[in-house]
């Protein structure tokens, strides 16, 4: 199947235009026509023409910028569409598909009927389509691009062998215009002159060399959809619909041994507006009964308008989740319960705000622990025992004091405190290999101060830059 | 020997309690250590006095702790209610910056009753809510004998019992709370002989 005007057909499907139309791509320094429609072709325009020239030819030309990556995506979509005829479909980029219809043609009432069906369906979609069917992949390509299979392969021009332009010109000069001429010519000089590529193409077209067709693997699509005959609006109804979709999706996930990490529920309303409910899970899950209650909060916020007539559920992020051995009691495990709770809390304050402390290897108090989102980390042990550390740590608050011995009496937060006992010093040196604003004062001598008033504070003195600070409070 | 722990010191489960005073964080940490299970600590993202996990180490394993950082008090309360009703974490600690009204306090209490988890609100002094089961004032006390974990815990409100004050001390080795009665001042009923 060859779609000679794939790009412009795609653009016109989105937004139809009457009259000549072209997609323009920038090549080098000039705007050139990338793809033209039938009307423009009749007006004498063709691919590769400069845009300025084309406008001179045809002043009412409508042009739009080309988007090759979207065309490639469209071709992939067409590949899925072509699976309706036979299961063996490969891509022939940039604008073709290869179908191996061996053993599938009779299902459509023979080859001719199958081709007619393809033509009719492509025409209904507004796509220009050229079909060629041959015994080999090369032959089919040749027929699709150069004549639709009436004449024998030998009479087609040499360019039908998927050769590049330089080789074609050279062959033309040698008088080898048709495939038949090439097939009859002695092989050794051709190979010497053009390399093995030419003969390989020739053999592939004539069936002397095999050319397998590799159908692209079908990625599993974790999406399910429910169209409703009558619009619904009640929360209970939407939940029931979601439940049905979740059941189907979880079956799919189960078959793939995967678990959803992020789910998107799209609710399409009668007036074509659509609303999305996103659910990010704290752990990969595929248990419909557990996921459903987590949607409640998001669904309650949806404005149903005049009613919802289509519900679509897609797992946009999927992680492998191996089947687990259930305990004999089959009670929900504590970890599952907690991750459900994290998910529910996460839908309110954001999953990145539910945190967990992890130990870190640093003797700097501020860096002796890490804070990680609980959904993406596991609890860790391995906290190193250190000299006593305060329970609360805050930004250093300067106090008025002199000397390297802890002050006997000091003001802190509008309180007068008397030192009753001081334990220390514990010297901590800055990590010079890391730039840290807070440690610009250099070394710190930490003191554990117990005041007669009761408060137990963590003070430090900076001997290189004399000053006293309060940084934490003990239990 | 140390006297037995009075029952009020073991906070009644499935209820929401309150604690204020300079030793409130230590009170929460010790409660967390004694209750066991997972702890959810809900604090405002604006709070500058952050929990320091190495300091928690003498009370409990920080791996049991989950921290929720919320943008506002309304969110804090919503998260607390959700967690209490779920009952997954055994203790839910909420840092509160403005007094709870009756409705909010009652909702937390009902959620705790449903889920069976214990709630603990860290409040500022004089910001108690009527719905709280008990309200405590915790403050560190200087100990002449050289121990540095002495605290004075006082029940200033108790819905199902009397008030009282105790001097308590945390034993780091055994991770145990001891009630001590300092010589010369015998506060509260626990200090009385018999």
Question: Would you spell out the secondary-structure blueprint of this structure?
Answer:
The complex is a heterodimer of chains A (475) and B (194).
Chain A: H1 6-14, E1 21-27, E2 30-36, H2 38-42, H3 51-57, E3 62-65, H4 68-82, E4 89-92, E5 96-99, H5 111-124, H6 137-145, H7 165-173, H8 179-184, H9 187-194, H10 196-206, E6 223-232, H11 235-255, E7 258-269, E8 274-285, H12 288-300, E9 308-320, H13 334-349, E10 354-359, E11 369-373, E12 392-399, E13 409-412, E14 415-428, E15 444-451, E16 456-461, E17 468-473
Parallel strand pairs in A: 1-3
Antiparallel strand pairs in A: 1-2, 4-5, 6-9, 7-8, 7-9, 10-11, 12-17, 13-14, 14-15, 15-16, 16-17
Chain B: E1 16-20, H1 24-35, E2 39-44, E3 50-51, H2 53-56, E4 65-70, H3 73-86, E5 91-95, H4 102-115, E6 118-122, E7 134-140, E8 151-158, E9 164-171, E10 176-180
Parallel strand pairs in B: 1-6, 1-7, 2-4, 2-5, 5-6
Antiparallel strand pairs in B: 7-8, 8-9, 9-10
Helix pairs in contact in B: 3-4
Rounded mean pLDDT of chain B is 84
Please write the CATH class name of the largest domain in chain A.
Alpha Beta
The helix-and-strand class of chain A reads alpha+beta
Largest beta-sheet details of chain B = 9 strands, mixed
**CATH topology grouping of the largest domain in chain A:** Dna Ligase, domain 1
Name the CATH homologous superfamily of the largest domain in chain A.
DNA polymerase, Y-family, little finger domain
The averaged pLDDT of chain A comes out at: 84
**Radius of gyration of chain B over all CA atoms, rounded:** 16 Å
Oligomer: heterodimer
Report helical residue fraction of chain B: 10-25%
Q: What spatial order of strands do you see in the largest sheet of chain B?
A: 4-2-5-6-1-7-8-9-10
N-end to C-end Cα span of chain A: 77 Å
* SSE topology string of chain B: EHEEHEHEHEEEEE
Q: Mind telling me the C-alpha Rg of chain A?
A: 36 Å
What best-fitting shape of chain B do the alpha-carbon axes yield? globular
Shape of chain A: elongated
Q: What's the CATH H-level homologous superfamily of one domain in chain B? A: P-loop containing nucleotide triphosphate hydrolases
User: What is the CATH topology of one domain in chain B?
Assistant: Rossmann fold
Biggest sheet features of chain A: 6 strands, antiparallel
